[in-house]
From TrEMBL:
UniProt organism field: Orenia metallireducens
Location within or outside the cell: Cell membrane
InterPro entries linked: Flag_MotA_CS, MotA-like, MotA_ExbB_proton_chnl, MotA_N
Key words, A-Z: Cell membrane, Chemotaxis, Flagellar rotation, Hydrogen ion transport, Ion transport, Membrane, Transmembrane, Transmembrane helix, Transport
Protein name, per record: Chemotaxis protein MotA
Family stated for the protein in its record: Belongs to the MotA family.
GO BP annotation list: bacterial-type flagellum-dependent swarming motility; chemotaxis; proton transmembrane transport
Length: 264
């Protein structure tokens, strides 16, 4: 579970609602026409911009925002180093039994390729092609929320114009001025809240999660190719640690301790 996402969403929601409450009843900020204009217009624009399959994938990606990263680069390095040790002792074919224990399809495919004796250049090409498609899917998912962030303030402004038009049309009826002004102002509020409390933060978090996953996949590719080349497990470990920040490398060393020696 990603605690930062949950705390951030809860904090933004609670504090904004508290600020509204200080102005009086929260019901004064509820306006059905404004909701219809902003929410309906934004959703319609997003649906128009993407296919239903892309929208379904984007909605599914929401769980990534609130879930912990399943494949940290440090954990992947530990797995790959253990594979390197086993391959060095028993040969690449010994890794075949490990394939069925892996949860990550990308890593599973890579290990299976080297076990099958696939040419190293072909292994690299296949995995990099798959990685490119993963990046593309992530980009589309993020793009859905970025589109929402662009459209919601725009429809807020449209609602403002609608409210102003209604207000000007009713100048001869002073009682209608308040309703028109309410729509004019609240639609802008709704559009800004949707963009800044939901669409933009979700898009930003998806970008962070994507970068973490791509880094893990790059570590997998480099580790698999190193194992196939028969490199020393210690060399494999040091090579893969180069993908991590200095603080992450220190954390990895403290976690592993003498674990590698125990397996060797």
């Amino acid at each position: 579970m990603d605690l930062a996402s949950i705390v951030g969403l809860a904090l933004a929601t609670i504090l904004v609602l508290m600020g509204m409450f200080q102005q009086g009843s929260l019901m004064m900020f509820l306006n059905i026409p404004s909701i219809l204009i902003v929410l309906g217009g934004t959703l319609g624009g997003i649906i128009l911009s993407y296919s239903f399959k892309q929208l379904k994938n984007a909605i599914a990606s929401m769980k990534i925002v609130f879930s912990g990263q399943s494949n940290e680069a440090g954990d992947i390095i530990s797995i790959l180093v253990s594979f390197a040790e086993k391959a060095r002792r028993e040969g690449l074919l010994a890794l075949e039994e490990e394939v069925y224990e892996l949860d990550d399809d990308f890593l599973k495919k890579g290990v299976q390729l080297i076990v099958d004796g696939t040419d190293p250049q072909l292994v690299k090409s296949i995995m990099e092609t798959e990685l490119n498609f993963i990046e593309e899917r992530h980009s589309v998912n993020k793009g859905v929320f970025d589109t929402g962030a662009e459209l919601s303030p725009a429809f807020g402004m449209i609602g403002t114009l609608v409210g102003l038009i209604g207000m000007l049309a009713g100048l001869d009826d002073p009682g209608s001025l308040g309703a028109g002004m309410s729509v004019a102002l609240i639609t802008t509020l709704y559009g800004s809240m949707m963009a800044n409390m939901f669409f933009l933060p979700v898009g930003a978090k998806l970008k962070v999660k994507s970068e973490q996953e791509i880094l893990s996949k790059e570590v997998m590719i480099e580790g698999i190719l190193s194992i196939q080349a028969g490199e020393n497990p210690r060399i494999v470990e040091e090579k893969l640690k180069a993908f991590l920040s200095p603080s992450s490398r220190t954390g990895l060393n403290s976690e592993e301790g003498g674990g590698l020696n125990a397996e060797g």
